[in-house]
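Need tokens for this chain, all 123 residues.
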Amino acid sequence: MPKELKPGVLYVSEAFGAAAHLCACGCGSKVRTPLGPTEWSLEETDAGPTLYPSVGNWQQACQSHYWITRGKVMWSTKWTPEQIAEGRRAEEQRRRVYYDALYCQQGGTLHGFWRWIKRVFQR
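Here are the structure tokens for all 123 residues:
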């Protein structure tokens, strides 16, 4: 990624599995989005890139929320603190489910059963 980002440009590093851009609202904040099965996905089209899901700059003062679809910014609704918290919980749950399933596939049925037992007793 370049040190200085230009407005209106989505930078992508396939080697590092990440995308970066300046916030679409113009505040100048750098937005970094990890790319991967539990994070954002990137689709390149003739019309421009699509980044999914939406970008929510909840840690920035602007709290911008938008989609990058076919090279264009599509503004979304502003989220309440409760919606932000729920969105974060849902993201964490998706990650947990994905990696638990991946871990179980690698270790077989017995390994998956052992992880389930450990989770039960950690509560």
